[in-house]
Structures are given as C-alpha cells and as structure tokens.
Amino acid sequence: MADTSNGLMYGVAAVKFKASGSGSQEKTLGWLDANGMQPAGNAPTFLDVMAAQVADGPVDSIMTNPGSDAFTMSLIQLNAQSMVDVFGGKAGADGSYTPPAKMIANGVLTIIMHSGHGFRIFNARLSRNGFQNGINMQNVLAMGIRVDMLKPTDGKDRRYRTYPPGTEDFDAVDSTEDAEG
Q: What is the DSSP letter of 4?
C-alpha cells in the first residue's frame, strides 16, 4: 500500500516495548508527559586535517565519531506494573514497586503516533534518566527514560524503520523488507 499521507509524523499515541530474550511479551508503556519523546542524540564529530601549505582551511575531514540517535521521555504513570513493564523489578501485592539494581533494558521499541505513522527501533536500550518534573502542585513526578538506538544484533543494517498510516502488522512488513535486503 502506497503512503498517501503528507509525511508529517506527530503525537505519541502509544509506546510499546518487547524486552530481548525468548518468551518476552510486548508491553504498552504507561502515559508519557505532554512533551512526548524528545531527540537526544549526538551529531557526528570530525577531525579537520590542516596542512602547512594550505592556509585557507582544512584539506580533509575525518569522522572520529559517527554520532548517535536517541530520544528521552518522561513516564508519568508510575504505578508498579508500568515500572515493571519497562525495567523489571518487583510489583508488590499492595501496589508497591521495588526497582531492580540496574534500570536498563534492551529490546524492540515501537512508537505509534497520532498521525497514524509507526516508528520501530530494532535494538533500543532504555535506561533510567533520573526523576523529572518534581513533586509539587504544578507537576507530576515522572521517571525519565533515555532510549538509545543501538546497532542491531541480528546482522541487519537498519536501526529503525518508519511505517505509513494504515500499517497494522509491523512484524509482517519487517519480515518482507528484511528478506528483500
């Protein structure tokens, strides 16, 4: 099906995460604050090569770091099950939450947007990015989460894929696109 949208991707409707490992199930994360997901990557860095014989600028530029792609988000629905779905840990029968020693998880992250688009990160590392917003009457406490787009571990080159509105089965698209190379 051809994409007939205007290409504008906006609004976080849902964020789903499937942790690495056999038997893990895809979970829908709890609510994010109104800022949604914000870019947090780094631009590539280069070393300018200067020559004594050339006074008006570099003769070459060598990439020293390819940069990175990442997002940050603030999870505001901090009930025990929402936290367990992201980082693991333990949800008590009374609704209490005990975090794991390390709040880091790797897996596939899928973002569904209000525009109808989808965005999938094939090897996402979610890490705790501290508490956000504060505890007061003007904000709600949030758990900051950083989402890093890492090199896939399945040998494929793609780190992420976007899907046009109307795409329902991202896994089927992935199987087709990955098979075609």
A: -
Question: DSSP string of 4-35?
Answer: -S------EEEEEEEESSTT---EE--PEEEE
Residue matched to tokens 């890490």? 127
Is residue 174 helix, strand or coil? Answer: helix
Q: Which residue has the tokens 């992250």?
A: 109
| Residue listed under structure tokens 């109808």 | 116
- Residue 161's beta-bridge partner residues? 120
Token code pair at residue 43:
């631009």
Q: Sign of the CA dihedral 2, 26, 40, 115?
A: positive
Q: How far apart are CA 159 and CA 76, in angstroms?
A: 27
Closest CA to 57 of 65, 66, 48: 48
The answer to whether the CB of 82 falls within 8 A of the CB of 30 is yes
Read off the pTM.
0.88
Residue 108: Cβ-neighbour burial (10 angstroms; 0-12, 13-18, 19+):
buried
Phi, psi values for residue 157, rounded to 5°: -80, -25
For residue range 114-137, what is the model confidence (pLDDT) as tens digits?
999 999 999 999 999 999 998 999
Per-residue tokens: 89 = 């840990």
